[in-house]
Design brief:
- The complex is a heterodimer.
- Chain A is built from 6 helices and 9 strands.
- Chain A is of the alpha+beta class.
- Chain A has a single domain, classed as DNA mismatch repair MutH/Restriction endonuclease, type II (ECO RV Endonuclease, Chain A, 3-Layer(aba) Sandwich), CATH 3.40.600.10.
- In chain A, the strands form 3 sheets. In chain A, strands 1, 3, 4 and 5 form a 4-stranded mixed β-sheet that branches. In chain A, strands 2-9-6 form a 3-stranded antiparallel β-sheet.
- In chain A, strand 7 and strand 8 form a beta hairpin.
- Chain B has an 8-stranded mixed β-sheet with strand order 5-4-3-6-2-1-7-8.
- In chain B, helix 2 runs parallel beside helix 6, helix 13 packs antiparallel against helix 16 and helix 15 packs across helix 16.
- Chain B is elongated and about 120 Å long.
- The chains are: A alpha+beta, B alpha+beta.
- Chains A and B meet through helix 5 of A and helix 9, helix 10, strand 19 and strand 21 of B.
């Protein structure tokens, strides 16, 4: 799939997909959607990238590099309520010195997002997931200020090695949670004394209450 | 017998408070030395007898104390350094609590001799806490102050017991004096114990003299193998010497960190230095360093603890990262200074380097701003949530205690004041009004509001539809699909936007807000199948009659329910509406 050349083309393409189920669309590409038992998590997102022609497979760049737009597939229920928090980026546990908000990966990912709601739920298989109305979003000044404050507060803790003091309840919009393929995965971090230690990787996530507000406004 | 509460004698209170400030002879030396520095002295002589337990005598050439203030100097909470609370925002002096001398005078005999520049001769104050006797007499003394503290803890035997060996107490004093000597290179300090000189720090104003002074205090190997650094940005400046592996020690006793000239042992700073020293110092060894951090006084809080080794930064993360960033550059990449050409001509004693840096910064036309951090970080006032109104089910209302109920349909309901009592069986709204009790069918009321809304749509003023997050799918037979095609523009008048995505698939993309969570597809199917050309009124009525509550807000949200009741009651003759939403029961008895 070729990549859209501008925002309008991207949004138009996303709107063309509206109402279709992933199974229907997958059939067009001779792809078989995984069944629920295989855990469809992640597959929907990858498939949406394919459908919309995302360019950056890498982690640090926005999905549509040339447009500076990040693609976020967001599972919602029938009432339009997000079913889970939205992963934004990995927490830089070992490379944060002097890192400012505007230089952070979180900021760059949140700058402009194409939200693609996906009707999902426990009883809905990946093939049955239906695509909702995509919307292009940038944080308002107020939202950005709060996001920055959340980020700042969490990164302050990280910088001082207080990882153990960070709970998922911190941050109004943005939270920090363990992120890893399994509980045993480790990366380098800093402890309270300033020593380099092996810690479990963390990710930045947007709270469902926040993403719900975004979806409701459009 | 009752134990009564009484005020403590001031001496006892002072003795208790002294426990916090005066722990050992070294604390006395520290407090007195800081007073010397705050008094602007350039020479300080310290004489000790028996490691300071017997006598500590400290003489300086500072501003001195006028006669009338001598007595005040040893009373608690008397200070020349802080006049009002606002001064605490930006403390530039080392002392500020106004409790050092008073605390010392509570646990030792104090002899205070001082002369200011204006005085013709000196005055001497002798104070003995044993009898709280204060005696002032003329004395001979050059400009400055001598404080003699003798018989430390003579009246606090417990403290005396806690003192360690003379040797240990002396080491503590030496540590304190070294700490102070490193904080101000422009002050001559001589430390003597029983007439023998333990430390002589000469005034240093050139780079060579400064290195000699540092070497005398921290050891020659340290200064020989230290990286001299000088970094600054718009807000902070970090200067000093970083010892490398050769000068590492098995204890952390070679570490001096100063914030605005004050020695500190701070968690944030230690953390930053430790991070930067990663991989430089062998495991189990401690680096030596002398570092000076300077930043605007209003961005740091030193008023944390009496012994003042802790500080609090308003922007600890920024301070932390500034230190790690620059120390890593120095230790790992050999970058020692912010400006590319290092100027060895300048003297680098901390007190005068201020001017050097200021001159430099002026050249680059940037001055440290007065309020540096505020713009970096704007804290939002905590979010205020709109007060949520809860609907109470009245328990003492007339309804509850009324006995014989007579159901009597009423035609004329005029009131619009009501009390929402609650939802019964998920289907009926129970409302108390002046005329009696109204029972309203929720779904009918909903249909009625839909009807009224649709009826208000005019060809020239169509309803606005809201885009749906999840467009509903409408699948029709090809024939019906063609029929719907012809009615798309008719439906648009009611805020219903349909697009055809294939031969038989339609997407309901926009709906009026009230229909957002209702299943419209069935109603639309029926509408298409009716084939006949519906009039505006017919369409609205059919649509309203067929629409079901579904997941509409009024199905579960009491606030929406209340709003619905309000709308309904404000309509004239609502109980005779075509949709017959409810009845009113008159209460008798």
């Amino acid at each position: 799939m070729n990549t859209p050349q501008n925002e309008e083309a991207l949004v138009a393409r996303a709107h063309d997909l509206m109402g279709f189920s992933l199974g229907e669309l997958a059939a067009n590409y001779n792809i078989t959607a995984p069944d629920l038992l295989l855990n469809g998590k992640g597959w929907s997102g990858v498939f949406m990238e394919l459908l919309l022609g995302a360019t950056a497979g890498s982690l640090a760049e926005p999905d549509f590099q040339h447009l500076g737009i990040e693609l976020k597939t967001i599972p919602i229920n029938q009432q339009g309520k997000p079913l889970e928090s939205t992963y934004i980026s990995i927490v830089p546990l070992n490379r944060f010195i002097g890192l400012k908000w505007k230089e952070s990966e979180v900021y760059h990912k949140l700058k402009r997002i194409l939200w693609v709601p996906l009707l999902a739920g426990k009883t809905i298989s990946p093939a049955e997931r239906r695509i909702g109305r995509a919307l292009l979003w940038s944080p308002t000044n107020e939202q950005e200020m709060q996001l920055q404050q959340d980020w700042q507060e969490l990164m302050d803790r990280v910088a001082l090695g207080e990882l153990d003091a960070i709970s998922a309840s911190m941050g109004k919009y943005l939270q920090m949670r363990p992120k890893g393929a399994n509980a045993a995965s480790r990366c380098w971090g800093i402890d309270r004394e300033g020593n380099r230690v092996r810690v479990s990787p963390r990710g930045f996530y947007l709270r469902p209450s926040f993403t719900q507000g975004i979806l409701a406004l459009h | 017998m009752h134990t009564r509460i009484h005020l403590m004698p001031s001496l006892l209170a002072n003795q208790i408070a002294a426990g916090e400030v005066v722990e050992r002879p070294a604390s006395v030396v520290k407090e007195l030395l800081e007073n010397c520095l705050d008094a602007g002295a350039t020479q300080v002589f310290i004489d000790l007898e028996r490691s300071g337990i017997e006598c500590i005598r400290i003489r300086d050439n500072g501003a001195g104390i006028v006669k009338d203030d001598l007595g005040l100097a040893i009373s608690r909470h008397a200070s020349s350094k802080v006049l009002q609370a606002a001064d605490l925002q930006a403390i530039n002096s080392l002392g500020f609590r106004g409790e050092a001398l008073a605390s010392i005078a509570a646990v030792a005999k104090v002899n205070l001799t001082s002369k200011t520049q204006e005085d013709e001769h000196a005055w001497s104050l002798k104070y003995d806490p044993a009898n709280e006797n204060m005696h002032i007499e003329p004395a001979s003394h050059p400009q400055g102050t001598t404080v003699e503290v003798s018989h430390l803890f003579f009246n606090v035997p417990v403290r005396r017991k806690f003192l360690r060996s003379d040797r240990t107490e002396l080491e503590h004093i030496e540590t304190v004096v070294k700490q102070i000597a490193l904080s101000r290179h422009d002050i001559q300090i001589i430390l003597k114990h029983r007439q023998s000189t333990l430390l002589h720090s000469r005034q240093a104003s050139t780079i060579v003299q400064t290195r000699q002074r540092i070497g005398a205090i921290c050891g020659q190997p340290f200064i020989d193998h230290a990286l001299e650094i000088n970094f600054f940005d718009k807000v902070m400046r970090l200067t000093g010497w970083l010892g490398l592996a050769e000068a590492s020690r098995s204890q952390s006793d070679g570490q001096y960190f100063y914030v605005n000239g004050r020695i500190v042992r701070d968690k944030v700073l230690n953390h930053a230095v430790k991070m930067a020293y990663q991989d430089v110092i062998p495991e189990g060894r401690y680096p030596c360093y002398v570092l000076y951090l300077e930043l605007p006084a209003d961005t740091v809080d030193v008023n944390v603890h009496p012994t003042k080794h802790e500080v609090r930064f308003y922007e600890s993360r920024q301070v932390h990262d500034f230190i790690v960033f620059h120390l890593e550059r120095a230790l790992h990449h050999g970058v020692l200074s912010e400006s590319p050409e290092k100027d060895h001509e300048h003297d680098l004693s901390p007190s005068t380097s201020q001017q050097v840096i200021n001159n430099k910064t002026q050249k680059i036309a940037t001055k440290p701003p007065a309020k540096p951090f505020s713009e970096h970080f704007i804290r939002e006032p905590s979010a205020r949530y709109a007060h949520e109104t809860t609907v109470e089910v009245a328990q003492t209302s007339s309804v509850a205690k009324a006995s014989p109920l007579v159901i009597k349909p009423m035609d004329e309901i005029k009131t619009i004041n009501f009390k929402f009592l609650g939802l019964v069986k998920k289907a009926f709204l129970l409302v108390e009004i002046e005329e009696g009790l109204a029972i309203i069918e929720l779904e009918k009321a909903f249909q009625m509001s839909v009807y009224e809304l649709l009826m208000a749509a005019k060809p020239e003023q169509p309803l606005t539809g809201q885009p749906l997050l999840l467009p509903s799918l409408l699948t029709l037979a090809p024939q019906q699909s063609e029929l719907l095609e012809q009615k798309v523009s008719f439906l648009q008048r009611y805020g219903i936007l349909l697009t055809r995505s294939s031969q038989e698939r339609w997407l309901i993309r926009e709906l009026p807000n009230i229909l957002k969570n209702s299943d419209v597809s069935l109603v639309l199917k029926a509408f298409v199948e009716s084939k006949t050309e519906a009039s505006h009124e017919q369409f609205c009525l059919q649509f309203a009659k067929q629409i079901t509550l579904g997941d509409a807000d009024v199905a579960h949200d009491s606030k929406a329910q209340e709003q619905l009741i309000k709308t309904l009651l404000s309509m004239k003759d609502w109980q005779n509406h075509v949709l017959k939403p409810g009845q009113v029961i008159k209460l008798l008895g």
